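Subject: Protein record for review, amino acid sequence with backbone structure tokens
Category: Structural biology, sequence-to-fold work with a learned token vocabulary.
Format: Residues in single-letter code; tokens as whole numbers, each standing for a residue.
Body of memo: The sequence and its backbone structure tokens, given next.
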Amino acid sequence: MNQNHREAMADVRDMYMAHTTFRREFSLLPQLVRDVTPGDAKRAETVGAHAELLCHMLHLHHEGEDLLLWPRLVERGGEAAAAIVPTMEKQHHAIEEAHGAAVALLPAWRRTGRGGDQLADAFEHLRVALIEHMAMEEAEILPLAERHVTAAEWMQLGEHGMSKSPKKQLPLAFGLAMYEGDPEVIKAVLAHAPLPARLLMPIIGPRLFASHAKRVHGTATPPRIGAGAR
């Protein structure tokens, strides 16, 4: 990638932060669903709205990689990329199938609070596929991205997700990531945001997450998972 040899290269630490968020929340989700008393539609709606947010975030995260990351790595990463990217794409397909199965069950459960075991099983299937994928991505893909993707190109991944998310969701989504995020990584991510966001997000994000976590998890401090954080 000689044409970019003078450009700043990707700082992939934000990907570890995103992965930690997904590990934590998707690991807690199956039991959250199972704990809803059958027929308790009010509680099912609370947990279901949380699940919908997570599924939306995950879909956009992987869509951005499909569109913006894999093609660049295949073009520039040589044999190493050629060896691993097809596996990443195959895993994305499997995750999207598991994601689709869970999302298909979600609306009826949110309305009625019934069918929770089937939905919890679907989320567990999604969790297993996702955990395996993220571990391989961290081991194989992120080192390649650091060498072959510019910082400006890497930022497009985050911009893709933000551009397709309702603006009202963004502070909570960032709060989800900030909960276990490295302050230096959070600062680096916000460095490119407008000044109001840089000033307010470190305050608003954690507050929104704490309130959300109390409703969903019953505590403002759900178990931290930490794996993959850097």
Notes: Residues 10-166 form a domain with the Four Helix Bundle (Hemerythrin (Met), subunit A) fold (CATH 1.20.120.520). The mean pLDDT is 95. The helical segments are 13-34, 41-76, 78-112, 116-148, 151-163, 170-178, 183-190, 195-217. The first helix runs from residue 13 to 34.
